[in-house]
Amino acid sequence: MSKRRLRLGLRGKLVLLVIIGIVPFFSIVGAYRLYVEQQRIMADMTRTGHEQASLIAEAIANMLVGYDYSNMESLAERIAQQPDVRRVTILNRDDKVMVMREKPTAAIGPSLDFESPVMFSSKQVGKVELTLLLERASIAKKTTFRNIIIAQIFFGLFLGLLIYFAVSRFIVKPVQRIGQHIKATLLNEEITQPELLDIPNHDELGELAQVFNNLNQQVYETQQRLRNKVDLAGTALMHTYEQLQMRTDELEKRSQDLEKALALVEKLARTDSLTGLHNRRYFDDIFSAAFSRAKRYKESMCLALIDVDNFKQINDNFGHSAGDAVLQYLCKLFNESVRESDTLARLGGDEFAFLLYQTSLENAEIMAKNCLALIASQPFELDGQLLDVRVSIGIANNQDAPNSVQALYGAADEALYEAKRRGRNQVATFPI
């Protein structure tokens, strides 16, 4: 099953490029702005903490020198009630805690510690420790972060849409018009005055449209000249057509004669002229192909070699014409013995071969014995005289001689020799 590739048009690719370009850019810019705002908020928080600690130190200087615990506790209590304050501690010059107030319900969370010395007459008489909660700063930071992200998304979408519509209007749309015009021109089979492609752009697309218009006009003019030449040549072709027709009829007749001659040559090349059977060369080609196929598909195939017994005596006693008649007589009986799917050939002299497809050695032996019986049942008569015509048959199976065609030939020949040795007029199989 073939896989279909996802095909993106120019607009799809444009959207993809805008996303690839704008998203990383605005992500980097947004991350930078978030970092800057975070640093600014923390700086403001730090500056505010130092200022508050310094103000508290100035406010309690006289109280600390005068050991005015009542006012220090009242001031510390008011400071601890402020939303951002978690703890305020007033210490004397020996770092002994004079007053400490801590918001009892303050949740454990991030906070910042600040410290400011308490100065009186240019001498340090104690110090103030102030712990501020960062909860409000965290809320402000989250709000700022959310606003930055929303702004980044808004401006990113705005810029992306602006780029998309601008490129689509000034680049993609003209390119599509050029493509549609080219398709319409290619589909128009009639030779007509070409329609000009109007692209008002004063840029490379406009130049491309002008080049296409010039090329289209040149093609039209060339087609007109070719049509005129075709019309002129048509008259000459009509004149020569009749002559070609006459020559064609003559060539067709000669071609038929040649086909008959080639068919005869082909038949002579693969047929034995005396018996009409396949000759040795044609049989070898068929045998080689059949052996390869049987080996590939693991099919059983048998080769039977046949030799006429005492054929030399027939030629010597009755003449070669009698020997030819005997071979023709045997050929007729052989054809009655084999199947239509089998191949029968004369290898030369008094030697014949059966190529039995998809046949086991046992079935081939049965066929060969039936052939001997058929020959015995129909004696050969020559000029009123009966001749004792007998044959010997050797059979081999490709599963017993599987190596090569030559090995199967050799096995069948060895079986034929064994049939001769046993007294002729019988069938022998390989292995002996």
Radius of gyration using CA atoms only: 57 Å
Fourth-tier CATH superfamily name of the largest domain: Reverse transcriptase/Diguanylate cyclase domain
Shape: elongated
Largest sheet: 5 strands, mixed
Widest beta sheet: strand line-up? 6-7-5-10-11
Which spans of ≥5 residues are poorly predicted at pLDDT below 50?
Answer: 1-6
CATH architecture of the largest domain: 2-Layer Sandwich
What is the overall pLDDT average? 82
What structural category characterises the helix and strand content?
Answer: alpha+beta
Number of strands: 11
Distance between the termini: 55 Å
Q: How much of the polypeptide forms β-strand, as a percent range?
A: 15-25%
Structural domain count: 3
Descriptive overview:
19% of the residues are buried. A hairpin with a 2-residue loop joins strand 8 and strand 9 (385-387). Helices cover 61% and strands 17% of the residues. Residues 1-6 have low confidence and may be disordered. It has three domains: 10-139, Beta-Lactamase, CATH 3.30.450; 197-270; 280-429, Alpha-Beta Plaits. It has helices at 10-59, 61-65, 69-80, 135-187, 204-270, 280-297, 311-318, 320-337, 361-377, 405-421; strands at 85-92, 97-102, 111-120, 123-133, 301-308, 343-348, 351-357, 380-382, 385-387, 391-397, 427-429.
Keywords:
Alpha-Beta Plaits; Beta-Lactamase; 5-stranded mixed sheet; alpha+beta; 432 residues; 10 helices
Question: What would you say about this model in short?
Answer:
With 432 residues, the protein is an alpha+beta fold.
Write the layout of secondary structure elements.
Elements lengths: L9 H50 L1 H5 L3 H12 L4 E8 L4 E6 L8 E10 L2 E11 L1 H53 L16 H67 L9 H18 L3 E8 L2 H8 L1 H18 L5 E6 L2 E7 L3 H17 L2 E3 L2 E3 L3 E7 L7 H17 L5 E3 L3
